[in-house]
Design goal:
The chain is of the alpha/beta class and about 375 residues long. Helix content is about 35%, strand content about 20%. It has 2 domains: about 1-185 and about 365-380, 3-Layer(aba) Sandwich (Rossmann fold), CATH 3.40.50; about 205-360, Rossmann fold.
Length: about 375
């Protein structure tokens, strides 16, 4: 069977969807499948199209030139032609479309794509109540195209039952939506690569993600100001970096916070291993799953996260079993949890061990690959 994945970006571009797409290609690699992926080049790179073979999966990768972003969507006028050529050259039996990805709306007008079954992998909704005014204004036409994609698809995959049930877009199709969770590969062996340096003494708290409003890092800084036992290493880049750095200075905690920016995989793995606690303080369902939780759990680290209604976070991180959960945006609750975990190494150890067990039993790549391959077989029998 020949499967063409259509994604937004691909590693080394940072992002949970990008990391999972690469992981899925790798997990599905085998004699039953021949795989390829069409993605956008990272904005700011040279604008020449690029092709290569992904070493981990043997999948053929093709990048389309990207000239920037508009409302977080890649500006890629060459995408429709590139997609048509990719379908012609690769001859897929099935399209696996990773959403959200506005470029994928072009499939609705491509005759070559209309002849194939589509799997829509629903990583996240685009919230109609987003803080960004432009996103809110674009929501109505986006919803119409999104609905057309859903109706046309042969199957829809949601990453958690909680997200499926809370999604306005998926609710009308609830009975047809397949739930297949995300996954994280086993952690690589420890290497000589050092973790980014922590800034001070105290409980080593790690947070990882794009520095965007919905990640809740401003709330984490406010909570850290009330938890002097803790220091923070924040890995990631984004439009909120300058504001967050200024906030840390105003709060008087700049000496306990290090903004590490983007780091390579080896340094990130070292940071996970070196931390005492992993924190995901996201504010809303824009945090659809929390792949970073699995990356912390697989090395036995305790988790402190927001209990976001309608998000997969609460399925991944089980309150009182593998994680401490607090209401999203609640500075007092987050600060109290930081202080409590700093004072209780036995609790941290127990949460970390149970998190490792949960990752091993529920979120290894092999399980995701089995369920995905079974879905492919249903849609393209005999291929």
């Amino acid at each position: 069977m020949r499967v063409l994945h259509l994604g937004k970006f691909f590693p080394p571009h940072a992002g949970g969807i990008e990391r999972f797409t690469a992981l899925l290609l790798h997990a599905l690699a085998g004699p039953e499948l021949t795989q390829a992926a069409l993605v956008h080049a990272t904005p700011g790179r040279p604008r020449q199209p690029r092709e290569w073979i992904d070493a981990a999966s043997a999948a053929q990768l093709r990048e389309v030139a990207c000239h920037g972003r508009l409302l977080f969507a890649p500006l890629s006028p060459g995408w429709p032609l590139a997609c048509r050529r990719m379908i012609r050259d690769f001859r897929p039996d099935l399209l696996h479309v990773h959403m959200p990805n506005p470029s994928a709306f072009w499939l609705l007008g491509l005759a070559a794509a209309q002849r194939l079954p589509w799997v829509l992998h629903w990583h996240a909704d685009v919230p109609a109540d987003a803080q960004h005014l432009g996103v809110r204004l674009a929501a109505r036409p986006y919803r119409l195209l999104e609905r057309a994609m859903l109706v046309r698809s042969a199957a829809v995959v949601a990453t958690s039952a909680a997200y499926r049930d809370a999604s306005d877009a998926l609710r009308p199709l609830r009975e047809q939506v397949r739930v297949i969770g995300l996954a994280a590969e086993p952690a690589p062996l420890a290497t000589a690569t050092p973790a980014p340096q922590w800034p001070a003494e105290g409980l080593r708290v790690l947070a990882v993600g794009r520095l965007s409003y919905y990640k809740g890092f401003a709330v984490l800084l406010d909570a850290l100001a009330r938890a002097p036992q803790c220091q923070l290493l924040l890995v990631g880049e984004g439009e909120q970096r300058a504001a967050l750095e200024s906030r840390a200075r105003r709060l008087g905690i700049a000496d306990r916070v290090r903004f590490a920016g983007g780091v390579d995989d080896a340094a990130l793995h070292a940071a996970y291993r070196a931390c005492d606690l992993f924190c995901l303080p996201s504010l809303d369902r824009a945090e659809a799953f929390g792949l970073v939780l699995l990356e912390a759990m697989r090395v036995g680290k305790p988790v402190l996260a927001s209990a976001i209604p309608g998000s997969g976070v609460t399925e991944v991180a089980v309150a009182g079993e593998t994680a401490t959960l607090v209401p999203p945006g609640d500075v007092d609750a987050l600060a109290a949890a930081l202080r409590s975990l700093a004072a209780d190494p036995r609790l941290r150890s127990r949460l970390g061990q149970r998190g490792l067990e949960r990752w091993s039993s529920c979120y290894r790549p092999e399980a995701v690959a089995r369920e995905t391959l079974a879905l492919y077989r249903e849609l393209v029998p005999g291929a």
